[in-house]
Amino acid sequence: MTDYTRSTAAEIAAAIASGETTSVAVTQAHLDRIASVDSAVHAFLEVDAEGALAAARAVDDAFAAGQSLGPLAGVPIAVKDVVVTKGLTTTAGSKILQGWVPPYDATLVTRLRAAGMPILGKTNMDEFAMGSSTEHSAYGPTHNPWDLERIPGGSGGGSSAAVAAFEAPLAIGTDTGGSIRQPAAVTGTVGTKPTYGGVSRYGLIALASSLDQAGPCTRSVLDAALLHAVIGGHDVMDSTSIDAPVPPVVEAATRADVSGMKIGVIKEISGEGFQPGIKKLFDQSVQLLVDRGAEVVEVSCPSFEKGLAAYYLILPSEASSNLAKFDAMRYGLRVGPEGVDSPSAEQVMAATRDAGFGDEVKRRIILGTYALSAGYYDAYYGQAQKVRTLIARDFERAFEQADVLVTPTAPTTAFKLGEKLDDPMAMYLNDVATIPANLAGVPGMSLPNGLADEDGLPSGFQILAPAAKDERLYEVGAALEAALLAQWGGPILDKAPALAGKAGM
Amino acid sequence: MADAVVDYDEALATYDPVMGLEVHVELGTATKMFCGCATGFGAEPNTQVCPVCLGLPGALPVVNATAVESAIRIGLALNCQIAQWCRFARKNYFYPDMPKNFQTSQYDEPIAFEGYLDVELADGSTFRVDIERAHMEEDTGKSLHVGGSTGRIQGAEYSLVDYNRAGIPLIEIVTKPLVGAGERAPEVARAYVAALRDLLKALDVSDVKMEQGSMRCDANVSLMRKDADAFGTRTETKNVNSLRSVERAIRYEISRQAALLNDGHNITQETRHWHEDTGITTSGRPKSDADDYRYFPEPDLVPVAPARERVEELRTTLPEPPAQRRKRLQSDWGYSDLEMRDVINAGALELIEQTVAEGATPAAARKWWTGELARRANVEGRSVDDFGVTPAYIAELDGMVRGGRLNDSMARQVLEGVIDGEGSPTAVADARGLELVQDTGALEAAVDAVIAANGPIADKVREGKLNAAGALIGQVMKEMKGQADAAKARELILAKLTS
């Protein structure tokens, strides 16, 4: 019997559509896999076996009745816990939302449900998506399936780990500064951040509104394209959503042709200062693209150097405002201050926020409140916005010379849990290559780029495209993926250690 | 406790008042500013809410296009410039009935700016009120504090919050500092708010009901010594909700601040509450210029960039300015200034216009609406609107009088019947058998009988004392149960006695 937990989403969908298996069987197989390995990985905060199986049965019934369904019908999926799901606890990895059951679905969840995709559960994440390691989750860290002592990346470590550990064929992530791409890189999976506005933000608990973008976490480029097509497209509920059809991503992933394409290597993020094994793999992959007919050009994006600094002003500023609603009054946690008989609303609010928010969240709220305050706005937030404009111009100029830009996704492979927890700056540096895309709103993808010589851990290859030209990510990504699979003789995840039996550690 | 005050005239002898008026207007759109929830007044608490206006995690705003167009029309009517491109901003502060703990508003990029409104005062002169800006924002919810004696949060056992109002579109219209009004400052403020109310009503963008809070005024007042060259410290009296209160509150603040300044005290910059019953203001929270709202452009909303052609299209939808319209109607109708003022005070301008359009004479329309109907409404403590009397009915009634079917007192009886729900004036007259007797034979017989029965009075008339005829007319009317045409009766009596 086929173990569908090792299959891609495209394969599963085909098997269900042809009657070779059922959605219930596939969904149950994944629930079993979660039961067997998730106590070791901790990718999930909440598993909804009942809901997932009910949705799977509905798909099977629809197929039995001869209905024609969407291309991913019956394929189960995991959803990052920052995305609100009606009737299913949503916490954004924070204590302050412990036990909150939203009364509505995010638009992308509505689309998943309409596409007949059973939702397995909600995946672990850094609290309110603040972090690069999933160690800032209020519910404990997620472990990297490649080495359970190591981080799975962040903030969407749960989604990528679930996909890497074969607990879910697909997952939804959100990427504010790299939180889809960086976890994909360190777990050996594919992660795509669509163009800003390409997937509705309605129902995403906002971290930084002008940067947040939901996207697919998968094991293949084609799967990412299929999922992108399901969740993407205009939404009247999100005023920043792009009012245009989803770019032809599935066609591009199927075509996978880079002949005649100009690949721009960004001088400032081409591997200098990156882990040597990562730099070496990156250079080899660029050569693979050249072998397939692409032309390589070197481009310069001088403002990227300031991207990290601008990001760490804009993000906390917006976050400080977005998180103000968590005031202990209407939903989530409420804590009374100790030793006070009849506390005021302000005292309850302060006690709740103290108990409900973790250190990283408090750090960023304070930073953002300061950066926006009168007298500092121009020096901090205003300057950061100017840098943002410069970065967008850098991209524009670079895309005049190249169809896509490429970089290693993250500077290092997965580091050990706890290693950088006391050094926020070292943690922030992990996102140096991914952040510019969020500041400029352009799409980006990370795909598995092999294992670094020095530690045998996965590294990622990042592709960036101009805004609204998401299909180029898939065209180039699928071509490189094909070349690498041929070289490796199969998916890189086949080289990961088996997890079964490690449950309970 | 009331503060010390000085006599108003005394205050004005020493100080010049400077005012800044901020008027909040709830727009009468069907849906809220940033979501599709209904905006009806008086619904059960928390029945007109959704994830967006409740500020639930993940929810996003979308701008109500109708509200933007209303804002543009208001801006144009206030002679403002309309922004080519503007944004919403977040005003970050904590407030119990504000679900997101920030208010989506406009800060440095208002939709309309740099305008004016000419305001007519009682003496017929005009005062130009310069408008700084008109910007869009959302209203907050409403708190109800239960268990205390004052309805205030202090002493309450618990508080309830109704979010139905949260997210209703608001326009805030802010004046520039108004200087030079002198002792007429309170009158200018009242006249400005009244003119604004009339204008917004004519634009049909709001129901402008101050008593329901759909229009409210914050009045900033400061005093400057007549020889000073800089403004004094101001206070802001919040949420004044009637025209009369606007005038009284400002007058009070002038007297109160003058008393403090005279005694060598400084004015504290603060918000103040107006108390309708006692006619005083009391201290609210201290407010400084450094209130840090940490404004920044709202990242969840795309900028608003109204197309110039659309702005010009909207300009063509502007109504005739209310002041100009009043002048035109007064001249069309031939009313005296006094009559016109009565009509405006009775709020009967529209009714009269419609009644005249239905065919009544301006004089009759005014007589009925500001006379009989207003009197009765006043006596019964009701509103003229409640009577079920339409302009068409009044025109019909006037037609019956002018056509000779009814006399004045019969017309009044017919109107009673209409108010009592007996139907149209014709139906009431028919049902009650009210009709002037046109049969000259019957009238002549009655006149003859009355002359015969009242010899001494008839003699007086014969002697040339024509006033005495009145008594005979009265008798004829009595004889004919009021259904005689008094003018004809007089004609007949005089013909019989003096020819």
TrEMBL record, chain A:
List the GO biological process terms. translation
Give the GO cellular component terms, alphabetically: glutamyl-tRNA(Gln) amidotransferase complex
Give the enzyme's EC designation: 6.3.5.7
Reaction(s) catalysed by this chain, per the record, are: L-glutamyl-tRNA(Gln) + L-glutamine + ATP + H2O = L-glutaminyl-tRNA(Gln) + L-glutamate + ADP + phosphate + H(+)
Keyword Transferase included in the entry's annotation: yes
Q: Which HAMAP family does UniProt cross-reference here?
A: GatA
Record-given protein name: Glutamyl-tRNA(Gln) amidotransferase subunit A
Which species does this protein come from?
Rudaeicoccus suwonensis
TrEMBL record, chain B:
Gene Ontology biological process terms from the UniProt entry:
glutaminyl-tRNAGln biosynthesis via transamidation; translation
Query: Could you tell me which residue ranges the Asn/Gln amidotransferase domain spans?
Result: 350-497
EC category name? ligase
Q: Which GO terms describe its molecular function?
A: asparaginyl-tRNA synthase (glutamine-hydrolyzing) activity; ATP binding; glutaminyl-tRNA synthase (glutamine-hydrolyzing) activity; transferase activity
Keyword Protein biosynthesis applies: yes
Question: Which EC number(s) does UniProt give?
Answer: 6.3.5.-
Question: What catalytic activity is recorded?
Answer: L-glutamyl-tRNA(Gln) + L-glutamine + ATP + H2O = L-glutaminyl-tRNA(Gln) + L-glutamate + ADP + phosphate + H(+); L-aspartyl-tRNA(Asn) + L-glutamine + ATP + H2O = L-asparaginyl-tRNA(Asn) + L-glutamate + ADP + phosphate + 2 H(+)
PANTHER family linked: GLUTAMYL-TRNA GLN AMIDOTRANSFERASE SUBUNIT B MITOCHONDRIAL AND PROKARYOTIC PET112-RELATED, GLUTAMYL-TRNA(GLN) AMIDOTRANSFERASE SUBUNIT B, MITOCHONDRIAL
Q: Subunit info?
A: Heterotrimer of A, B and C subunits.
Sequence similarity: Belongs to the GatB/GatE family. GatB subfamily.
User: What is the recorded name of this protein?
Assistant: Aspartyl/glutamyl-tRNA(Asn/Gln) amidotransferase subunit B
